[in-house]
Amino acid sequence: MKISTLAAATALMTVAHAVQAADIEFWYGNTGNVETAIKAECDAFNAAQSKHHVTCVGQGSYEVSMQKAIAAYRSHNHPVLIQFFDAGTLDLMLSDAVVPVQDILPDVKWNSYIAGARAYYETSGGKLFSQPYNASTLLFYTNKTELEKAGIAKIPTTWEEVIDAARKLKAAGHACPFVTDGDTWRVLEQFSARHGLPIASKHNGYDGLDAEYVLNTTFAAKHLTNLVEWRKEGLVKLNADTKAGNYTAAFNAGECAMMEGSSGSYAASAKAFEGKYEITVGMAPMYQGYERHNTLVGGASIYVMKGRDQSEVDGAKAFLDFLRQPEQQMALTAATGYVPVTNDVLDAIAKSGEGNSTKYATAAIGIKSMNQPRTEDSRGIRLGFYVQFREVFMEETQKAFAGEQTMQAALDRAKARGDELLRRFEKTYKGVKLP
């Protein structure tokens, strides 16, 4: 009887431990169709096994998720898994709040990740700090139907061709030939990377915290000035210039004919075009005379936070393993347009019999764009307080678009204000060696 009682008690303790291990949280920052896809993956993980259970909690945006996670960590009430976006990488690396994912999962073949997805989130020694997850990159979208109406048979691949097509569209009566929102990620970061241009010295901060911004001295300054002039000419529209009030919504409605946008925008655009227009998607345009380099990975990756017990870490590892499966990456790509992050997924798509399906339209082109020849200035951005710098850049350049200052003055001011942020960050982490 005593043995049975002891066995029963032991069983109860084992069950209690299993239940404890099951309760892990994953915080994410997406909304809309991406949030729907994330929730579907969480449900699929919970249905696929019974050892662990993940609760996925949306925070409304990447910025809010980052702020709440840091506050939760300080109060010891943080999740074991947190999704952070690209711009917060250095802040997380130096926060002492996360464990490098490659240390948590040493047996994973991390070199199976595409180079473009690895570079942003790895240390100088090549160790991944976080697991790339919803990876996007910049692509070029066109409404082929509207282009053909204007007599444009060839999809533009250079900026010179884009503007030539824009002039033909305008002449044909099209009110919005090309649309962008002027976002830092699109018009500065992705532009600079694929043209092989630095945003800051020290290879965008990878070689030290004493970096300085140089964006006001590179060809990016000329491109941004061009955007101002093309907008005056009626060839380029910003959010506020469109009836929809949003560049992707304006493109999806057929209001605008060409757009530079995230691969993560594809699913919504393709759905909106059904039965109305033909959509094309390709690599972002280049200026003639420049060699094409890789675009940067956008979106976000998943970090393992410190201070959780081993059972929760085990659950986190199981969930990360699940998300890495080709089938799960394919599901995320099909639902959102985000790009697969490991090289084996393209083979899996081909073997699925749906390799030519529109739901995987961004997979091959997105990977191809991120896997173009790389330079020391196109790995990514490793700058402190970069989230705040993005706000500075937008504030100054929007004034230029509004005619309140020249674009060169805007970039000079952004550089000065950005350098102040970098010096504050350098002072905060004085003596700390970059990972």
Automatic annotation (TrEMBL):
Coiled-coil intervals, chain numbering: none
Alphabetical UniProt keywords: Periplasm, Signal, Transport
GO cellular component: periplasmic space
Record keyword Glycosyltransferase present: no
Cellular localisation: Periplasm
Family, per entry: Belongs to the bacterial solute-binding protein 1 family.
Described purpose of this protein according to its UniProt entry: Part of the ABC transporter complex UgpBAEC involved in sn-glycerol-3-phosphate (G3P) import. Binds G3P.
The protein, known as: sn-glycerol-3-phosphate-binding periplasmic protein UgpB
